[in-house]
Amino acid sequence: MSKTALVVGSSGIAGGAVAAELVLQGWSVLGLARRPVAQAGVTPIVADLHDPAATATALADARPDAVFFTIWARQATEAANIRVNAAMVRTVLDAVRPAASVRHVALVTGLKHYLGPFEAYGQGVLPQTPFREEQGRLNIDNFYYAQEDEVFGAADRDGFAWSIHRPHTIIGKAVGNAMNMGTTLAAYASLCRETGRPFRFPGSEAQWNGLTDMTSATQLARHLVWAATTPAAANQAFNVVNGDVFRWKWMWGRIADWFGLVPAEFDGTILPLEVQMAEDHAVWRRIAERETLIEPDLDRLASPWHTDADLGRPIEVVTDMGKSRRLGFLDYQPTDDAFFALFEQLRAERLIP
């Protein structure tokens, strides 16, 4: 395979990480985003995927061998999620079709494949954990399934291979991202330290005491490139997590210690971050001005609603990676190290104090 990649959503957590990994492995990388961010070795392409004609024009000269989809646009209803997010995948695949260069398409979805969309998250009859790829689709509308169907249909039409990647909650850096637990927790911890409020776990007893796992953006990026370059991984769906499991009752203390905090005792009461952080915008602006941070808008850093959804689950969530291991993907990333590396990056880049 020649090595030109198109990363769709290159300004996001997953997209930025996969673009960096592709550059590291010697690929020529095209980074498509509505507002690309500067990234070493990545050629930016500006496109609004809600505009098929403009996207076709933006990609007219692109001849990617592999396309990596790391995008979604949150809508008010799941019906709208399906319509909008499937259309974005279709728009890109239609735009690159005339060049007939694409040999592999990778799509990042997630564990909502097993848990259901936000409208029906964790409801009804769910597959047994740990989640395994052979556990099929839920009998419910889900934009992940619609995105997959766009890839499958284009693959049958155009003859490329595909891979589907289902990470758990992703730990990585991006500003303005809709689903960003790592930076949300960093901002929350910084606010607790500033105000003297207790660093209180916001979620459920099931998450506090139960086992869980997560996915580092760098682990996900390595997995995406591995699948695109490993023949045995073609036309397969994969779970991808760090490889360790933990309980939040342990991880919460690890995060607190990094920020010099003492974690509050958990009494089993759910107190969402959306509630705890609702009045913190002015406090964050004051911190940003005093510490010369580069992002004074708390909403650009934190996504409390998403962190609340993950930490408020009423069930234990653990993910099996046996399928990838059997095919040779053996990378491992301790989750606490992934959090600490992110916090160090956020501090070095003046995003948190």
Automatic annotation (TrEMBL):
This is SDR family oxidoreductase. SUPFAM superfamilies: NAD(P)-binding Rossmann-fold domains. InterPro entries: NAD(P)-bd_dom_sf, PRISE-like_Rossmann-fold. It comes from the Bacteria. Coiled coil: none annotated. Residues 65-353 form the PRISE-like Rossmann-fold domain. It holds the Pfam family PRISE.
